[in-house]
Predict the 3D structure of the following.
Amino acid sequence: MISSKNVLLSSHGTDGAQAAERAAIAMCETEATIKHLLVVPDLWKDMMGDDWLNNGSTRDRYGRYIESELGKEIDTHISRVRQQAEEKGIHYHCEVILGKPDKCLANACKEAHYDMVIMGSPRPKGVAGLRSRMTTGPLAETISSPLLIVPYPDE
Amino acid sequence: MVYTKKSPALLIIGVIMLAIWFMADSGALSGYIEHLGGKKYKYFTELTSMPLYFGIIAALGGLWVLFGAHKEGQLDYYSSAIAGGMFILIIAMLVRWFIAPEIAVISTMMGKVGDTGKYIHKLLGLNYVVIGIVAGIVIVNVFRVPEWAENGVRLSRLGLKTGVILLGTLYSAAELKNLGGLSIIMIGFFVLGSVGIVLWMGARMKIPNSMGGVLSAGMGVCGVSATVAAAPVVQAKSVEIAYTIGTILLWGVGCMFIFPIVGNLLGMSHVQFGAWAGTGILNSAQVAGAALAFQPDGIETLKVAEIFNITRVLVLPIIVIWLAVWYVKREESVTETVNVGRVIFEKFPVFVIGFILLFALSSTGVFAPANHYKGKYFGNTTESGFKESKVLKSDQRSVLSAGMAQVQRQDRKDALQRLIDNGKVMSIEDDDALRGLINAKVLSSDANKILKGAHKAVRHTAKKIKAFREWITWLFAFGLVGLGMQITLSSMKQAGGQPAIIGAVVGSLKAVLSLIVVMMLVSETI
């Protein structure tokens, strides 16, 4: 198996992303570093839609609620990967960004060099979840590090 | 944080507005206006006034944005909204004055569609309201809302709420009573019905209670607004909220285009269409859009539809409490109790109080005599606007006296006699009776002409109400263009999964059943 010392893992908790997390842990040696990039899709900025009837307090409460829900989900993903990394003696860092997943990943690759960039496969049709798909074609052309797209579980 | 973004955009908007005013006022636009309809072009008065006033505001604001010293604080926060507000306004202006009329010209040139007897823009409701919303949707999805305009785009909500508040001036007590009664019955039945069906279908399809709760509020009450209000109460997961909002937006935008077409094809009256749109369209923003799309040059349909919207939003706190109690009962992990008072206080739509206040003020006669109807009122005294020069001359009275023998009905006979005796119409009842006499065409054409003149002399238009009507149209156009800028394809794309199936079933049922009820039970006028 290929081993890496400095990996950029892009995942946000879906089944495909969790497969990427497992692959990243398996590929890293002890004392290697995983940078975990979690992108909260910026579609959430528009997820108040065209609401106009509610007053400010209801909208604020909704905004805080969404933030706390997304925060809880992010915390779950971080603690899961951190635990697996620490068990294997891997250094773990994470970064949470709001934006477009493919653009954020491309930017992260520009800011530092990684031995390997690892991400999950798109969700197959019919599987529930957010529609915020990464366009892997242009991404592969943009980033200079090797890109590993881990197959979706059971595919 | 300093919210004002240094950008020349607001200044440019101001200059464009002033250029439009100058070209219209100096006659440079005459050729183009002739092309857009000449004497039939309805917006010339607006063209020679609005862009001047707003152009000056935008240009001065633009200079302040560019050269002013901006510091953190309330002034910076509120002034940062001007650019976005003007951005929406100039789009609404361009659409209303030029783009929509141009589309109408092209559509008219293409001829009528088949045997419908209507031009394609009439059939599809392609007027300034619909085109304005579409322009907003295109801007946000293709170009994104510019950073300097982001703060101000939120002003669209203020525009719509102010529009609803001002609408309060246009209802008569009888209208409000009849429409209110009808809306309570229809909204009560369809809201409770659709909330119940969603919860029942959700249980059958084994979706989580949190998803069933948020979906039922969105599908049943007022769409996205109800979803925003109910999501924290039923502890909906993020993906469940995304599914619900995506489904409602997709359905709502579709309905906004389809409802006016169906309404036109079925020849529905303003009242019927307003009642149908107010009940059958899931999302409240698109109710106003569909109403104005159906009747762009009047607000009778909007008046009906907005009463239904207000009834919906008044039902919202009750539904939120119901769902909260329902959720707490079903989820063992939830230990919180439902604070009924807090929910009602938080969710109560304050702008409805403004609507009621303006209605009450209007009824006292502040804006027009209390007996006004749609801004028209009866007045046969100098104080109420009657001109003494309009009193019938003796020769006119003689013509009417000569026709007296032909009048059969006693009420018309009495009204005519009083008109001859006094030289003017003496009461609303007499006016109604004399108009009936004109329509009956039993008198000579000369006599009918005199009667029409006598009627016009005692019927006046309230200037303030007329101004309110124009402001309301603009506030809704402004608000809907801005709301269009908040409908993103990325959020609509989230429609899917079981919520989309439930949404399609409940949305279709609600639209079809409410159409049947309206066509069978709602009369053409109210």
